[in-house]
Amino acid sequence: MDEYRELYQQIILDHNKNPRNFTTIDPSTHHAEGYNPLCGDHYTIFMNVEGDVIRKVGFQGNGCAISKASASVMTTLLKGKTIAEAEHLLELFHDVVMGKQELPSDDDDDPALDKIRAFVGVRDFPVRVKCATLPWHAAKAALHEADQVSTE
Questions:
Q1: For residue 61, how many other CB atoms are within 10 A of its CB?
Q2: How far apart are CA 33 and CA 43, in angstroms?
Q3: Are 66 and 118 a contacting pair, CB within 8 Å?
């Protein structure tokens, strides 16, 4: 189990140091802000949606290592997904980090689950849960309500 914990910590550290899709998409078809006034995490999520598919997704802003890694992982998972697939991932991430749902066992070959699994330990630190979920709430707002600020 320690070897998995180390692997998952490496995923978070890597995505914090080298965030993927850390860019503004201009023009974007969808965007929303996420802001946590308690800790100062603040991100804007940008998407280009064509038909029912997220073609481009990026983020800008700043925050702690957990929130930046979470935003980076999220953008890699949402790119190329349909709106329905994205909604499923958004709900799954939220439920897993909140402790409402368990992921399938570690032997599942789904790389998306491995990336989400990296954040399972966050639920043991309730004050950090908001850090991990903030970009995901902003992405959900971007898909449904342009120009919203999510503080969840």
A1: 19
A2: 6
A3: no
Give the chain's radius of gyration (CA, Å): 14
Nearest alpha-carbon partner for 132 in 76, 83, 64, 77: 64
Q: What angle do CA 131, 2, 65 make, to 5 degrees?
A: 20
- Taking the whole predicted model, whether its pTM rises above 0.85 is answered as yes
Assess contact for 86 and 33: CB atoms under 8 A. no
Q: For Cα atoms 52, 58, 60, give the angle at the middle one, nearest 5 degrees.
A: 145
Q: Is 105 left (phi over 0), alpha (psi -120 to 50) or beta?
A: beta
Rounded to whole angstroms, how far apart are CA atoms 132 and 112?
Answer: 16
Whole-number Cα distances in Å, 74 to 1, 3, 38, 68, 80: 24, 23, 22, 10, 12
The whole-angstrom separation of Cα 29 and Cα 56 is: 10
How far is the C-alpha of 31 from the C-alpha of 76, rounded, in Å?
Answer: 16
* Tens-place pLDDT, residues 6-17: 666 888 999 999
pLDDT in tens, 86-108: 999 999 999 999 989 887 765 56
Catalogue all structural domains in the chain, each as residue range(s) with its CATH number: 2-150 (3.90.1010.10)
